[in-house]
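Render this sequence as a predicted structure.
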Amino acid sequence: MDVFIGNLPAEARLLEIQDLLGGLSVHTRFERRMGRDCFDKDYHFFIVFTSSDSEGRALIKALNGKIFDGCRITAREFIKRADCNASARDWDRRERRFNRATSE
C-alpha cells in the first residue's frame, strides 16, 4: 500500500518523520515530494511505499492526526492524481479528499 503523509512544514525531514513512529517497525521505501503546483501553491509531502496493506494501515493509524511541529499530520492511502498538465484520466470513483465534518 502507498501511504500519503501530508500537512507537513517545508522543513520536515525524513528522520523526524521516522521518529514520530516510535516503536512501530515499518519496512518501507520513502519518496519526498515538494514544489509548486499549477495553481502556484506550495506543496510538501511524503509517500511511503509499504510492503503490505496491513503495514500501510498501521502506519496510517500511527500517524494520522498526530501533531508535528505545530501541524496536524494527514496520513491516508495515496491515490495518484493526474498532473495539472497531463491529459485527464478516467475517474475510478475513489474519493481522494473528504470533508471531516460530514464523514465521521
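Summary. The chain has one domain: 2-80. The chain has a mean pLDDT of 75.
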